[in-house]
Amino acid sequence: xxxxxxxxxxxxxxxxxxxxxxxxxxxxxxxxxxxxxxxxxxxxxxxxxxxxxxxxxxxxxxxxxxxxxxxxxxxxxxxxxxxxxxxxxxxxxxxxxxxxxxxxxxxxxxxxxxxxxxxxxxxxxxxxxxxxxxxxxxxxxxxxxxxxxxxxxxxxxxxxxxxxxxxxxxxxxxxxxxxxxxxxxxxxxxxxxxxxxxxxxxxxxxxxxxxxxxxxxxxxxxxxxxxxxxxxxxxxxxxxxxxxxxxxxxxxxxxxxxxxxxxxxxxxxxxxxxxxxxxxxxxxxxxxxxxxxxxxxxxxxxxxxxxxxxxxxxxxxxxxxxxxxxxxxxxxxxxxxxxxxxxxxxxxxxxxxxxxxxxxxxxxxxxxxx
Length: 370
Hints:
This protein is of the alpha/beta class. It is built from 14 helices and 13 strands.
């Protein structure tokens, strides 16, 4: 089989959500199927670390596709010509984009439909592109992989397609996310949280992530509990962060709230493993990778009761209503007073095994090769 691949999110030293998904899945598929040929299509110079085998040919396709107009040119003009010349059998796109101009079976991974639920939180040109093209990609695709059951239901409901056309291909977790001994935990807490235990949030500082209510809820928790615990917020600033800044500036306990910007995977795994509890209060997550990373570190969870987070957290998580800071505060208080957090940790160990990259890669390949 000759498989053309949209590899534009494989960017050296900049692998984030979709990039890591692409890396983990493609590496396994290439290495497990030396009998197949792969054409990796990049939109800028690439690192040889992403050429996972001798059966991979890589090409740089112009223009660099990082803007709606350039997305159109890349997917509708540049890509089809090269893929057809190469005589591909299928096209695999792990970032949710397809090509309306390409006439061969297309298999795409959809991570979420956030643009449909929160259109005002997306730049206008990006929203217009998504609104026009995403429904057409969905209907044209031979098959769609969803990263959660929640996102699958959203795709089926929003676009009226058959349930059988969408299957679940979960995220997995990087192996470096693992439990940490108490001595090493204290070293990390000494470095990042004045030696105190901390609640941890990881994600872009974006309205959809609900950091504002997290800060308000933490403030209420501190008032009611008199706890010395801290709140660490790890993530890059995204769009519309003024409400987060306002909540922080008006917090009575802002000295107990620490912001950290981008951390590499190694440092983030340590910060996660040293946490007292991870908090994922988002209004919408297609999957919720930080929740799974916490589970793999034996860290209990507080998660929103929306979309995929209850699915990822399972019985290892306390669910909250993200609309109300008091719900977040109450969950924090429950964690503070819980004398048997070990039961949540054990539940997490049992639950996390359903999310692994090997199963995801096998499933994606089997569908493309059916």
